[in-house]
Design a protein that fits this description.
With 335 residues, this protein is mainly alpha-helical. Helices cover 54% and strands 0% of the residues. The protein has helices spanning 31-38, 44-53, 58-68, 74-87, 105-117, 128-132, 136-149, 155-162, 171-187, 194-201, 208-221, 227-235, 244-257, 264-267, 276-284, 294-301, 307-322.
């Protein structure tokens, strides 16, 4: 899931809610400790991102899911249930069952996803009213769940949703929901819907949010057809000039497309940027690559003054550690 820009952020409708319970104290093992500390943040986005970031550490991830499933914020509960399904932590499936009756339709959709991933045969027909309904949050998140399950029999339902625009949304918001549905259809094997994502990527420079979503989806879905466009954006070499955040999103997307396409030399230039969101995006773009000093830069960012920068750096470093057998040099200062 992509919690900073893409449509799943729509689920965080109650993002002012603070948690009332606390997870166990952090274990002091570098990036894991940073992410565990984030679980105790009053910011629900930090708590949700911490759950996702802990995925490579089975024990810590399981604990994070347990607390996330009972979080007072519906966005965190949604992420916890989806994360359980992604990791197929079926040993925890009984903790998801109460969420099948959650007051939030999005959380119920996430619970269905987790149940389906653990062969519990939930009634997925309950997703149809969400996908066709008037609530953009439920529509986007139910479509995402169907896409992640990848059952082609649901493609007709998603196409019907595309044919029923939500009149209460402005054009940009409508496009964001449509991109989520297009992503789901691509996951079901309908690669022709990549064209909708590509169209958003090459849209007006004024539509920065849509461009960002499309760039991220290109990486997630492995759309090599946008490889050249992503390179131009990352190097700021094409006719269309974009901001620094979009450049870094393109760098991250290139790394997701292929480790060989990673451009960490661009991202590392901005780890000391004055803007926290740029430092966080730089950390995200440093997941792939073998640049000298790359791991030290991420370790230093784990001591950043901004919570979201620390989370992004810890998540990137933990991903790097889990993807290769050699230990990572973490000689820079830690929190």
């Amino acid at each position: 899931m992509r919690c900073l820009i893409v449509p799943v952020v729509l689920v965080c409708g109650a993002c002012a809610t603070a948690r009332t319970t606390s997870p166990p104290p952090p274990d002091r093992s570098g990036p894991v400790s940073v992410l565990q500390a984030a679980q105790m943040s009053p910011d629900p986005l930090a708590r949700a991102n911490a759950i996702e970031g802990l995925l490579p550490d089975e024990a810590a991830h399981g604990q994070a899911i347990k607390f996330g499933l009972v979080d007072p914020n519906e966005g965190v509960r949604f992420v916890a249930a989806v994360s359980l399904g992604d990791a197929q932590r079926c040993d925890l499936i009984d903790l998801v069952r109460p969420l099948m009756h959650d007051q939030s339709p999005s959380v119920r959709a996430a619970a269905m996803y987790a149940m389906a991933r653990c062969d519990q045969s939930p009634d997925l027909g309950a997703l149809a009213p969400m996908v066709l309904g008037d609530d953009p949050v439920s529509r986007a998140n139910a479509a995402m769940v169907l896409g992640k399950l990848g059952n082609p029999s649901a493609a007709g339902l998603l196409r019907a949703s595309l044919a029923r625009p939500l009149e209460q949304l402005d054009a940009r918001q409508q496009r964001l929901v449509e991109l989520t549905i297009a992503e789901a259809l691509v996951r079901m094997g309908e690669r022709s819907h990549l064209e909708e994502i590509r169209a958003a990527f090459f849209g007006s420079a004024d539509d920065a949010e849509l461009i960002a979503v499309a760039a991220q989806l290109a990486g997630v879905l492995g759309d090599t057809g946008l490889g050249h466009g992503l390179e131009q954006m990352a190097f700021d070499s094409g006719p269309r000039k974009v901001g620094l955040e979009l450049r870094l999103i393109a760098v991250a997307a290139l790394g997701a497309l292929s480790p060989e396409a990673a451009q960490p030399e661009i991202a590392i230039l901005f780890v000391d940027n004055a803007e926290p969101h740029i430092r966080a995006q730089a950390a995200t773009a440093l997941v792939q690559g073998d640049l000298p000093g790359q791991d030290q830069a991420l370790a230093a960012l784990m001591a950043d003054t901004n919570t979201h920068v620390r989370i992004a750096a810890a998540k990137a470093l933990l991903q790097r550690r889990s993807s290769r057998p050699l230990p990572i040099d973490e000689t820079a200062s830690r929190p």
